[in-house]
Design brief:
Strand content: under 5%
Number of domains: 2
Shape: extended
């Protein structure tokens, strides 16, 4: 019985490792990663709430940490959603990765901006480095938003083309 199953498994497409075996293994890994990312996001929420409650002073330190933590949780959830979509549809979606990148870059901009406003004894070199870092991240956000715009424009054009082909 086992030998017949193994023979069928390895003779399905003529390759040493059959495609359906790899597909099933990939599905198992994606399912595990989705569950793991969900657990990480739940733990991050609890950690964020605990840190928010225990941070003194709440304004501005606690608020800035809270926003930073919330954006981190959003990033984790977006990655989890991308993995789940890959698991269900079998395709990675470019838009999801671009959105994750935008959120991550904005999160970093907010963190650097908050550090600039909170630190009183900042040297000129440190201040200039922080401004440069914010400028680079702003450029990254603009580039990712432009890439997202291009990606969605191509998708709209492909959808319009397919609708026209269906009409004929």
């Amino acid at each position: 019985m086992l030998s017949q199953l193994l023979r069928k498994l390895f003779q399905s497409d003529g390759s040493l490792i059959p495609k359906n075996f790899i597909d099933k293994l990939e599905d198992i890994v994606h399912g595990f990663l989705g569950i793991l990312l969900f657990l990480i996001s739940v733990l991050a929420v609890f950690f964020s709430v605990e840190r928010l409650i225990n941070t003194h002073p709440f304004f501005p330190t606690g608020m800035i940490q809270g926003i930073n933590d919330i954006l981190l949780v959003v990033i984790i959830i977006e990655i989890m959603r991308t993995v789940v979509v890959r698991f269900t549809d079998g395709v990675f979606q470019l838009d999801s990765f671009l959105i994750i990148g935008v959120i991550a870059a904005v999160r970093h901009i907010l963190t650097v901006g908050a550090a600039l406003t909170m630190e009183k004894d900042k040297t000129a070199e440190s201040f200039n480095r922080s401004l440069l870092e914010m400028g680079v991240n702003t450029g990254i956000v603009v580039a990712l938003v432009f890439a997202l715009f291009l990606s969605r424009s191509v998708q709209r054009a492909q959808n319009a083309k397919s609708r026209v082909e269906e009409d004929f």
